[in-house]
Amino acid sequence: MSRSDSAGDGGGDRVGSYAKHSARNSHADKDCGYAALSALILCAILSVLCVAVLTLSQQEKRRSDRQLQAYRTEEVLNEALLSITSDILLMAQEARLERDLTIQGQSVKVIAEPEAYKWPIDQAQEVSEVALVHKTQSLKKDDLLALIGSPPADTTNTLHWPRNDCVRRLFSPYGYASPTEEPRTDTSSTTVRSKDGQIWRLRAITGQIIREQLVRFTGDPVKAYGVIVSEDYSLATLPECG
Question: How do the domains of the chain map onto residue ranges?
Fold first, then answer.
């Protein structure tokens, strides 16, 4: 074998070894690339999961906060109405009451009105325009009749009590005032010994929430009154009479 042949064989071996080494490096680079890509995908998935968990946690917190606020508002309204019924029972007169209270840090406006001195709701047609204007500027006779409409056929199961503060201040399904005369709004000189059997309208407002009730006093020291009807509204739905 000549020297040139030996040199040729050595060169070929070196080229083959380099090619094998390059192939191994290429495979290693590909493996590293796959590992890096997998790591990036895993990080992206974990990031999405973290965002989802955080979003759910925030939604749950907001829901819990709303529930807590609703429970607190419920307690505030009940306490305010209980407070004014106590005032009604303690006073000697049958007069409209209005109180501004602070309960659990919330401001509450509470109003109580005796229903007996109001016009009967089913005799609204007989009330004159003049008498109505004397009581409120925001309720005309035509508007009144449209709001009241026709009383329900079965009044034993459905209370005819239109959702309007002006109407409710002046008219009542339990009113006894003559429709040809103005109802007595100042009854502070009327002294009564007991509220037994009397029906009053209660209205409590806190924030944008209103609770309206009609209650009948029982004379029972254990249960002083019974609720005839209780309704909750937003202030926008049942604004105060002007």
Answer: 1-117+184-242
| 156 three-state secondary structure | coil
Q: Tokens 């429970």 — which residue?
A: 71
What are residue 206's phi and psi, to 5 degrees?
A: -140, 125
Question: Which residues are registered as beta bridge partners of 203?
Answer: 111, 212
Which are the contacts of 202, defined by CB distance < 8 A and separation ≥ 6?
Answer: 81, 84, 85, 110, 111, 112, 211, 212, 213, 214, 215
Beta bridge partners of residue 111, listed in sequence order: 98, 203
CA distance 232 to 205: 10
- How many Å apart are CA 91 and CA 101, to the nearest integer? 18
List, for residues 154-200, the tens digit of each pLDDT value. 444 456 788 888 889 999 999 998 888 776 655 555 555 678 899 99
Scan for tokens 């209103």, then name that residue: 210
According to DSSP, the residues that pair with 211 across neighbouring strands are 204, 232
- Mark out the alpha helices in the chain (DSSP H runs): 3-90, 129-135, 141-148, 165-170
Question: What's 191's DSSP letter?
Answer: B
